[in-house]
Amino acid sequence: MTAVQLPGSPVIEGDRLISTNPATGDEAGRVPVTDPTDVVRVVERARAAGRWWAELGFDGRRDRLLRWRRLLAQRMEQLAELVHAEGGKPIPDALVEIVTAVEHVDWAARNARRVLGPRRVRSRLVLAEFSAHLEYQPYGVVGVIGPWNYPVFTPIGSAAYALAAGNTVVFKPSEYTPVVGQWLVDTFAEVVPEQQVFTTVHGLGDVGAALCRARIDKLAFTGSTATAKKVMAACAESLTPVLVEAGGKDAMIVDADADLDAAAEACVWGGMTNAGQTCIGIERVYVVEPVFDAFLDKVVTRAGRLTVGARDADIGPITMPTQLDVIRRHIEDAVARGGRAALGGPDAVQPPYAYPTVLVDVPEDAAAVREETFGPTLTVNRVRDADEAVARANALPYGLGGSVFGRRRAAAIAGRLRSGMASVNSTLTFAGMSTLPFGGVGESGFGRIHGEDGLREFARAKAVTRRRARSLLRSTTFERTPADVARLVRAVKMLYGR
Ligand code: NDP
């Protein structure tokens, strides 16, 4: 059934949000819209469920999360069809996204006790009569607001870790991918039928805004930098802590001793998978002069081979119709400012598709270099050496991920990138490494999902000291004598004053 005129745009009909395929306009499904005034009640229910969920303990939650992981793995193909139907993503890309999400559920479930569970930590000499204990307790209700571009991977990156830490989760999916969001929550309810531990609220931005103000205990936001600022402002009203996973403009650096075939292959994948609609997608490439021409040639050849189409193609439609204008504007602006299209160009945007475009020698102040394009486009610019490449890569307010190809200096160059993540001789791989934290710096956000840091992000440290002996250096009591204080001062001078 064709539900809307502009394929891909969601519509609200009565109390239903209808989600459609961006290539065909076919309905992908419909979900009930949550009235913004009801969001508080959903959060209250989640809080009540939270007591039960917390009491299950790490082992009980681990078992439930592993059962959910099993369902996700068993039904991967079904979920991939839904991701494709709703966002237009090619099925193989959807499967790769789901595999990554499954891996994170597994790791979060298996490691929550080790990372967050109660443990003894060492005492120090000045307070040797006390033992020290640390544990990480859940916040309570975590709100998760997610984008449409990775509708499985991004919410699970927050929700699985928050759930493993003992929180309940109220999830507001993007209006472009509500059906996938609902599928995640429904499958979770199959393994946790007793209480509403993981729930959704659906609607447009106003429902997300209501969630920020619904007395949640923490908010995990993934989306654009512009919306992140609004979310932070709303959360500031109640001092609700926020985790921000925002946009990016990731760079790839190709050094003189790089394997150029491997670099070109990874560059085209990193820049054009999911039609370039990837927060950690490669959008800018800096190549040292001696290998520039050879590298560009290989990139253009590979990108030129990619197929574009509705289903069995390498590149699917652009999910959000308005993004097509942004992509076109960036290409036109780059060319108007003296850049050259080595592949594609202004005609590459043919709604609902954008064809691969490789722009060369684009001025560094052009929109295609400075702003998130979110299309299958790359700017490839030549640099004198790796130092200039690093300086240019670091020149933007964004700092999410990045990639370096090379041998001798590649790891050192990756360390110098002002970003939360980097991959050496690959692109995007850090996202699938569940043992590593994921997140950005600057306008790309703050806080971390994934890995040990990702678990701690959804729990507050609870520190407890416990007396185990009488104090020899009495200081924290009005019963202390001048001699006690003098002994303390002498001890500290002996310990630290030399
Ligand atoms: P948006 O910022 O437009 O939307 C993100 C979410 O916020 C959606 O669920 C949206 O709802 C909701 N929202 C909109 N307005 C408000 C508001 N005032 N208060 C609360 N919530 C609101 O981003 P997109 O969905 O377009 O996603 C693309 C962006 O996400 C890109 O910038 C990309 O780089 C970034 N991203 C970052 C990632 C990371 O890990 N750093 C990963 C993936 C994407 P609705 O859709 O209903 O408007």
UniProtKB/TrEMBL annotation:
CDD domains: ALDH_DDALDH (cd07099). Keywords: Oxidoreductase. GO terms for molecular function: oxidoreductase activity, acting on the aldehyde or oxo group of donors, NAD or NADP as acceptor. Coiled coil: none annotated. It comes from the Bacteria. InterPro entries: Ald_DH/histidinol_DH (IPR016161), Ald_DH_C (IPR016163), Ald_DH_CS_GLU (IPR029510), Ald_DH_N (IPR016162), Aldehyde_DH_dom (IPR015590), Aldehyde_DH_NAD(P) (IPR012394). It holds the Pfam family Aldedh. GO terms for biological process: aldehyde metabolic process. Belongs to the aldehyde dehydrogenase family. This is Aldehyde dehydrogenase.
